[in-house]
Specification:
Layout: E1 18-20, H1 25-34, E2 38-41, E3 56-59, E4 68-70, E5 75-79, H2 84-93, E6 96-97, H3 109-114, E7 131-137, E8 143-146, H4 151-154, E9 163-170, E10 172-173, E11 176-186, H5 187-192, H6 194-198, E12 203-208, E13 214-223, E14 235-236, E15 239-241, E16 265-266, E17 286-293, H7 297-305, H8 308-311, E18 315-323, E19 338-345, H9 349-363, E20 369-370, H10 380-385, H11 390-400, H12 409-414
Parallel strand pairs: 1-3, 2-3
Antiparallel strand pairs: 4-5, 5-9, 6-10, 7-8, 7-9, 11-13, 11-15, 11-16, 12-13, 12-18, 14-15, 17-19, 17-20, 18-19
């Protein structure tokens, strides 16, 4: 968190008059019980006002990490404020792993799960699909544990049910990953072989700046022992094997990225694009992301390709990836295997906003769901239509927070 009063990108100045950093669950309970309004603040890696409050913001960064493995149940219980990179290093040291990680290991466990943040892979659900139990402080200050009955509505909950103090996640034996990068994939080859390319490895990301007919790069992350990892072809799908390490954004320092060139390493040092000991950029960016059904990926790409001249001047990089379907009511991947289009923009809201609106218009026929934590202009009526179980979630939120203590202007508008 760069600044407690601003988000990481420094495009949002929080209006919350108070920030609290409790150091125990008991202190958190007392704080929540006496607050009129409260919202949890994670690592600040959202690009809109989802974490703001008219009353208190609560950071759990000073809470004990409380990392505990249950080998019999194959789970780990972790403090909500712990970052994924820290959790992953602990798990690997104990011989365990998570099924997936996001591009950045710097994000908090609870914040990522609450917004449906994901990672990549045609068979990999988003990070929230690993959750098996949630401990949270409710509006009355009570500490409750939610189990599987409440899960479909309680995991990706946008902070509206309470302040999560810990989460229990499914784990598996540790594994190694090797990643290769291919340069200059022709857009025509991407379209012709889209399913095969997106399914080529455990995790796949395609990067483009939309400045020409070639995609900048394809990042293939293989679990060691799987097909394709030992002997990569020098040419593949019209692209060529990179002769050195790459950064997703051209001309940025490659030292900030995780090891490439097929060198095997622990899962948590390969699945993210960036190293934990690297502070991700300097916040000079805005981000937007949209999720469509994988069956619409080809047509959605055609729509974007048709406006490349509008996108390229205000873009740093676009990442294309997949997420497996889940049953979490407010997840952007709810009910459909998804294709995600992520845009890292220059930090100029006035220049970016009209392009974002045009992208949303082009993607509207595909029922594109915006990422809850990014910049978007999709109307509340449209967002609500995209989530079939929103009425059920609203009822769940009313049950746990009848007075709206955990609501704010953002969730009131969209939920």
């Amino acid at each position: 968190m760069r600044d407690a009063r601003m988000n990481w990108a420094r495009n949002i100045t929080f209006g919350a008059p108070h920030l609290h950093r409790p150091t125990s669950v008991a202190e958190l309970q007392k704080l929540v019980a006496t607050a009129s309004h409260a919202r949890a603040l994670g690592t600040g890696h959202s690009f809109n006002t989802i974490a703001d409050s008219v009353g208190d913001q609560v950071s759990l960064a000073d809470m004990p990490p409380s990392l505990a493995i249950d080998a019999e149940r194959k789970t780990v219980t972790v403090g909500a404020g712990v970052r994924y990179g820290e959790l992953a290093a602990f798990l690997h040291g104990e011989g365990y792993a998570l099924h997936n990680l996001g591009s950045l290991p710097h994000i908090s466990v609870a914040g990522a799960c609450a917004t449906g943040t994901h990672g990549s892979g045609v068979t990999n659900g988003n990070l929230a699909t690993a959750v098996r139990a949630i401990e949270m402080v409710t509006a009355t200050g009570d500490l409750v544990t939610l189990g599987t009955r409440e899960f479909p509505g309680a995991v990706v909950a946008l902070g509206m049910l309470g302040i999560v103090s810990s989460m229990t996640l499914a784990i598996e034996p540790t594994y190694e990953v090797a990643q290769y990068v291919y340069d200059d994939l022709p857009f025509s080859d991407l379209q012709e072989n889209l399913d095969e390319i997106l399914s080529a490895a455990y995790s796949v990301s395609v990067f483009t700046d939309w400045r020409g007919p070639l995609m900048n790069a394809v990042w293939l992350k293989y679990r060691v022992g799987s097909a394709g990892v030992e002997r990569p072809e020098p040419h593949w799908m019209g692209a060529r094997l990179a002769d050195g390490p790459r950064h997703p954004v051209p001309h940025m320092p490659v030292e900030n990225c995780t090891q490439q060139l097929g060198v095997p390493g622990p899962w948590h040092e390969r699945l993210p694009h960036f190293r934990l000991d690297f502070t991700p950029s300097n916040g000079e960016e805005l981000q937007t992301e949209y999720f469509v059904a994988r069956t619409s990926a080809h047509d959605a790409l055609d729509a974007l390709n048709g406006m490349r001249e509008r996108i390229a001047p205000v873009l740093q990089i676009t990442e294309l990836r997949t997420i497996a379907a889940d049953d979490l009511w407010l997840s952007p991947a709810y009910g459909r295997d998804s294709f995600a289009m992520h845009f890292t923009w220059i930090k100029d809201h006035d220049a970016v906003a009209p392009v974002v609106a045009e992208i949303e218009e082009k993607l509207a026929p595909f029922d594109a769901r915006p990422h809850w934590g990014k910049v978007f202009t999709t109307s509340p009526d449209v967002v609500r239509r995209l989530y079939d179980r929103l009425p059920d979630f609203s009822a769940l939120a009313a049950h746990y927070d009848p007075a709206g203590k955990f609501r704010n202007e953002f969730v009131d508008r969209y939920v």
